[in-house]
Design goal:
Its main location: membrane. Helices cover 54% and strands 7% of the residues. It is of the alpha/beta class. It has a domain of 79 residues: Flavocytochrome B2, Chain A, domain 1. A five-stranded mixed beta sheet has the order 1-5-4-3-2. It has a two-stranded antiparallel sheet with strand order 6-7. Strand 2 and strand 3 form a beta hairpin. 39% of the residues are buried.
Length: 449
């Protein structure tokens, strides 16, 4: 008769000591795993593992992995357990909810959203090319630019959905959909998106861990940025210098103009990552996809009759796409923020505090790409967008039960809330009690006679 192996136990404090790249432990349901050597091969990137290292990550694991993923944990087991492992009442309810949704098949029922978007993109692409090549009308060229912007929006949604769950019939075709929709159609690398987006989900609204809030020197959603905090994601100081103070002081006025040309920043970020020394998954395929975009897009623009129409066409596309950029910021800019690493033990609480839903009619779901249900998406990122409206009432009830915020604002109200947040930070930046060295431009704009 085999003797039962005695279990080894460590405390949560001891687990926290193992959060370095070469000494990286995590716990799932109180069982400890060593993922030091595997982090670099993690499909979701190593950043999120480093951010959650030394913690019990059960809720995050449930959110991001299908049931089939549990079988792969065994090879990382240390045989050690947490002796002070506890599960909060919120987490218990969250896990129960995830199980119920899984049993109902909601993670598998993808609907026809992706197919409709692909058909819509194909139709718009043909209309844009036909209008540019076959029409001499300035108005038609303007409309074509706007259609291109809408194509970029829908392409981004396809890239987003295929990055979170499999929208195609196989993993291979799903990866192709990501590259075509993201890199080839929109010019934004899916590798860059995964790198930043996964970190955003895990560290939702952490000022120093969430890249989606780190827009110094242009924007600051919190006065805490005035202390020149260090971005853990980018590995550099977000210096709040005189230029940053000047720009932030008027950010509630520059917000919409910046959003109009925000796509330029995404193009730049794509190139910076793909040609950096970082370990970029499928770097070659991503570069090829970007080259496809920078072949057809300039060629299409060059087919317009003159430079004024070319500029109009590009700006029209940027203006329409800015609606999506605005939506992304509306979901988080006026949410609660915090400093420090994400705490996996309050997964539900952090997602509820940092996200804002956009209320809209059912017929507008296609336009928002499911991201109007931002909290639902953050809690269940693998769930197809067509199911998010269905689960929203259940999520709202759970928030109410545990006295957690559930913010659902109209598009107008969300804009007002975001501008208010930016204005509050701007007024604090103007406060002369904040000792930041001034330059002549600052003095000229802030002299009171």
């Amino acid at each position: 008769m085999e003797m039962e192996v005695e279990k080894k136990y460590i405390s949560a404090e001891e687990l926290k000591k193992h959060k370095k790249p070469r000494d990286l432990w995590i716990s799932i349901q109180g069982k400890v795993y060593n993922v030091s050597d595997w982090a670099k091969d993690h499909p979701g990137g190593d950043t999120i593992l480093y951010n959650l290292g030394g913690q019990d990550v059960t809720d995050a694991f449930i959110a991001y992995h299908p049931g089939t993923a549990w079988q792969y944990l065994k090879k990382f087991s240390t045989g050690i357990y947490l002796k002070d492992f506890e599960v909060s009442e919120v987490s218990k309810d969250y896990r129960r909810m995830a199980t119920e949704f899984s049993k109902a098949g909601l993670f598998e029922k993808k609907g026809h959203g992706a197919l409709c978007s692909i058909v819509f993109i194909a139709i718009m692409l043909n209309l844009v090319v036909y209008g540019v090549l076959k029409s001499d009308s300035v108005l038609v060229h303007l409309i074509c630019g706007m259609l291109l912007g809408m194509l970029w929006i829908e392409g981004a949604y396809i890239g987003h959905d295929s990055g979170h769950y499999q929208v195609m019939s196989s993993r291979f075709y799903n990866n192709i959909a990501q590259i075509v929709a993201g890199n080839c159609f929109t010019g934004i690398s899916i590798a860059w998106w995964k790198w930043t987006h996964n970190a955003h989900h895990i560290a939702c609204n952490s000022l120093d861990y969430d890249p989606d809030l780190q827009h110094i020197p242009v924007f600051a959603v919190s006065a805490k940025f005035f202390n020149s905090i260090t971005s853990i994601f980018y590995g550099r100081v977000l210096t709040f210098d005189p230029l940053a103070r000047l720009l932030v002081s008027y950010q509630h006025f520059t917000y919409y103009p910046v959003m109009m040309v925000g796509r330029v920043n995404l193009f730049i970020q794509t190139f910076l990552l793909l040609f950096s020394r970082r370990n970029v998954p499928s770097r070659g395929l991503n570069i090829i996809g970007i080259l496809v975009f920078w072949t057809w897009f300039p060629l299409l623009v060059s087919c317009l009759p003159n430079w004024s129409e070319r500029v109009m066409f590009v700006l029209a596309a940027f203006a329409v796409t800015s609606l999506q950029h605005i939506q992304f910021t509306l979901n988080h800019f006026s949410g609660d923020t915090y400093l420090g690493a994400p705490n996996a033990n309050d997964w539900f609480e952090k997602q509820a505090a940092g996200t804002i839903d956009i209320s809209c009619s059912t017929w507008m779901d296609w336009f928002f790409g499911g991201l109007q249900f931002q909290l639902e998406h953050h809690l269940f990122p693998r769930m197809p967008r067509g199911q998010l409206r269905k689960i929203a009432p259940t999520v709202k009830e759970l928030c109410k039960k545990h006295n957690l915020p559930y913010r659902s604002l109209s598009f107008w109200e969300a804009n007002v809330s975001t501008i208010r947040t930016l204005r509050n930070a701007a007024l604090q930046a103007r406060d002369l009690s904040n000792q930041v060295p001034k330059n002549l431009v600052w003095e000229a704009l802030n002299t009171h006679g």
